[in-house]
Amino acid sequence: MNPIVLFDGVCNFCDASVRFIIKNDPKGTFRFASLQSDIGQKLLKERNVPSDIDSIILIEGDKAYYKSTAALRIARHLQGFWKLAYGFLIVPAPIRNLAYDFIASNRYKWFGKKESCMIPSPDVRERFLS
Prior knowledge:
Helices cover about 40% and strands about 10% of the residues. By secondary structure, the chain is an alpha+beta fold. It has a 4-stranded mixed β-sheet, with helices on both faces. The longest helix is centred in the last third of the chain and has 19 residues, at about 95-110. This is Thiol-disulfide oxidoreductase DCC family protein.
């Protein structure tokens, strides 16, 4: 099973992040679903993700990773120097998540919000779960 990235479907920053992952994942490793979708909610429940997690979530097998851990685990699969970001896992999660939480708590203010989830282009549509 391919790793699945769950993202906030109405967040402009999250939408840009998904597009960035797609652009830097030429092997098509990742699948995507919005947190708001039925499949997203199902995956969260199956992995017992706390309901207060407002973050990008990476599902790998039966495990769920979120916040900076999810971002760094995603980076290790991307092309180019982005793989090197995975090394930041040596920094304790509470320290890494300070920066992550600051950006996440301001994402709507800085980047805006959409009325609905993105509609993927035909060339990547099969990577989105519905």
